[in-house]
Structures are given as structure tokens and as C-alpha cells.
Amino acid sequence: MQTECSAERSMFGRVEGRSVVAEFDGGALTSDAGGLLLGAADQRLGLVRRIARCFRDARDPRLVEHSVATLIGQRVFGIALGYEDLNDHDELRHDPLMAVLAGKLEARREDCAPVAGKSTLNRLELSRERPTKYRKIAHEPAAIEALFVDLLLEAHDRPPQQIILDLDATDDPLHGDQEGRFFHGYYDCYCYLPLYVFCGRHLLAAKLRPSNIDASAGSVEEVARIVAQIRRRWPRTRILLRADSGFAREALMAWCETNRVDFVFGLARNARLVEEISVELLQAEAEASATGKPARRFRDFRYATLDSWSRRRRVVAKAEWTNGEANPRFIVTSLNKAETSARFLYEKVYCARGEMENRIKECQGDLFADRTSTATLGANQLRLWLASFAYALLCALRRIGLAHTQFAEATCGTIRLKLLKLAGLVRVSARRVKFALASACPYADEWRLAAARLVTTA
């Protein structure tokens, strides 16, 4: 038996003798009016337009209602606003905010909305590298990958003296039979193993990979591509590569040494390495016993594996005694002793790589980069790129519009909650489209400042 839904308004008691009622009859309203800032940030970067250039559209122009730029913008803006599913767009296509962001208030055909629904967007996400009879939109992976690096280069007025590229692999759990699905023993689940490359908050690469590989697989190719693109614009900028022990592989270290790229990688401990710092561990244990607090010592030495390394390299060891037991840690680096001490290299340079993990959490937790539920690896890679562009858009909003405000270091999720999820009444006249926002918004000053900065610099 079907449930009968009452058409009566929802009742919420009485306040000072007046009934409190609610109904969805407000007309042209949006719950995402703050998303106008996303549109301003997009105008500043030209992001959607540039992503669209990475696609080829073989559809008959006479039959096209929604351009590739409209589809891409709708998907990127939707992810940034918190809509991870394509199904959400069957309702969002009627949202006035999405229409304004698309620059298209009305559809040409009576049976269409200003922006696309889930079926049309799904055809975009299922696009391949070459158009086919049933997949007429195609994308160029190399052009998409290069765009991420271009965004980093354009964010600087002048070339920096040094940049640090952080590499990391993480798990992307899968709950279906997606292509490239394998069980990973460390993460104890079926998953993908995407490779991320960041430079500070700038995302430079998000490469989706199956999980039956080494964490460093493909890293030489990704780093070579990124470094070559950076050096074409910044030939004198020093580049330092930073990663955990999963990337301390001969192939990557040898490539860095050949191509004038410095590195500092974690190094998995073994009996030989621990034996090298046996004296320092005893000293740390004695100090910890005397003071009741953790103690650490550092040591510099040259080291080579028995057969996998081609040369001896500088290793920095942290001999730490904490909680009643030894906690030795090691890193391998191309940096020499004259420019950085062992303690500074470990504590200030290497340990700072932990901040990259927060960036990955933003991408996956706030922007749904792990929403890889399509059947094919290629379609899931495209989804990952779209989520990554949503991250880049919010980073631009934070960097340009929110500098020196309380949101200058806020996460993407916080920015969305505080500044984008604003109710707005939309009034369309012959001369303008006005969004009337809540007068009592607690972050109105920051919102106005961000809008002024983005529009001024556009």
C-alpha cells in the first residue's frame, strides 16, 4: 500500500500566538547562492573554459542544447557545492544559481532546462579519448594533466627560488566490480591506489591506478612530466621531491640525481640501519630514563643497500626513545650536510610532508575524489579529474578572495558550509538578475570582501 502524502503545510507549533508553518512554495530560491563566488573564481582562472578545450565534441551542433563547457562547469560547480552524485542534477538543472553559473537562463527547447540532467552528464563522464558512434564527446588526458601544472605556474607573479613537490599514494575503497579492482593487503580492502602530487596546496597530479602495484609505480613518468613543464617556465627554480618510504626506489632517486632534482624520502628501517644508530639509541634511552620524557638523537651517515641501490647515499637517522621503547626513523636525501643539518632536515623539512595528507583528505572527504563507482577505470579517472578541478577552484577562491581573513587556511568543507551554502531569493528582471541573501548572514563581511577581490582581479 502506498503512503499517502498530505499536501498540508508542515506545522511546527506556535510562537507568540502565531502558527509556525513551512512549505516548498518559495518560488525562485536557491540554497547555494554563495556559489556566485565560484563563478567569480572561475572567471578569474578561466577554468571551465580551459577544461572544455581539453575535450572534443563530435555532436551535431544543430541538436546540441548543452555545450561541453556547460556540462563541465555544471559538474565542477556541483562537486564544489557538495553534490557528488549525477542524480542530484535532475533537480539542480532547475536551480537558478546553476543557470547563472552556466551563463544560460533559459533553454532553447521547451522540454529542456537551462542546464543538463543526469543522463547528459553521464555521457560526458563516459567519454573516451576518441569519439565513437555512441560516445561523441572525447577528452585528451595529456591536456587535462598539463592544466593542473599551468594553474600552479599562473598563481605566482615571479618564479620562486625553490618549490617542494610532495608525492603520496592513498587508498580509494571500491564496493563494486569496477575495472582495475584488486584487494590491497595493507588497506585490507578492494580499492584503487591513486597517486597524488602536490606543491603546497596546489594539486599537480591525481593519477588513478589499480592497487596491485607498488606505491611508486608510474611516479618517475609523472614527476618527469611535471618537472619538464615547470622548467619550461621556471628554468632556475630549484625543485625538491618529498615522499614517504614507499617512494625510496632506485629508479626515482637515480632519475632525480640525473635531472638535478633534489629529494628527501622516508627509508624503511631494517637491521643494518638500526645497528648504525645503536649507540644513539642507548644514549636516548638513558636520557629518557633520567628525565621521564621522550628523548631523541640524530645521526648522519652514508649508506647503500646490498644490491638494489646503484650508489651510497646520505641517510639521516632519528634515534628516539619514547613510551619505554625505541622508535628509530630514517630518511634518505640528496641534500648535503653543508646546507642542512640532520635535525632540521628531519623535523622541519621531511616531517612537513604530513600536511599533504590533509590536502588528500580535502580532495576525498570534501570533494568526493573517491566517488569512483563507474564501471571503467577511464571513466573513474575522469571523475577524479573533475573532483580535482573543483578542489583547484576552491583553492583559488581561498587564495585570492579569502587571503588574510579567518578563512585563509580553512578547509574546502568549511568554506562551502560558511560561505557557499547561503539561501538566496532570485529576482530576474529585464536589466539584472538579483540574488537577495540573508541579512543576518554571520559571514557577510568576508563574503563581500571575497566577491570584491575576485571581481576586481577578473
Give the helices and strands, then pairings:
Elements: E1 10-15, E2 18-22, E3 29-30, H1 36-45, H2 47-52, E4 55-57, H3 68-80, H4 89-92, H5 96-102, H6 118-125, E5 137-139, H7 141-154, E6 162-169, E7 172-173, E8 182-184, E9 189-192, E10 195-199, E11 202-207, H8 219-233, E12 238-243, H9 250-258, E13 262-267, H10 271-276, H11 278-291, E14 295-303, E15 313-322, E16 325-326, E17 329-333, H12 342-350, H13 354-366, H14 377-401, H15 412-420, E18 424-428, E19 433-437, H16 444-457
Parallel strand pairs: 6-12, 12-13
Antiparallel strand pairs: 1-2, 3-18, 4-5, 6-10, 7-9, 8-9, 10-11, 13-17, 14-15, 15-16, 15-17, 18-19
What can you see in these coordinates?
This protein has helices at residues 36-45, 47-52, 68-80, 89-92, 96-102, 118-125, 141-154, 219-233, 250-258, 271-276, 278-291, 342-350, 354-366, 377-401, 412-420, 444-457; strands at 10-15, 18-22, 29-30, 55-57, 137-139, 162-169, 172-173, 182-184, 189-192, 195-199, 202-207, 238-243, 262-267, 295-303, 313-322, 325-326, 329-333, 424-428, 433-437. Mean pLDDT is 93; it is low at 1-6. Strands 6, 10, 11, 12, 13, 14, 15, 16 and 17 form a 9-stranded mixed sheet that branches. A 3-stranded antiparallel sheet has the order 3-18-19, with helices on one face. Strands 7-9-8 form a 3-stranded antiparallel sheet, with no helix packed on it. Helix 1 packs parallel to helix 16 (444-457), helix 3 crosses helix 14 and helix 7 crosses helix 8 (219-233). Strand 15 (313-322) and strand 16 (325-326) form a beta hairpin. It is globular, with a radius of gyration of 26 Å. It contains 16 helices and 19 strands. By secondary structure, the protein is of the alpha+beta class.
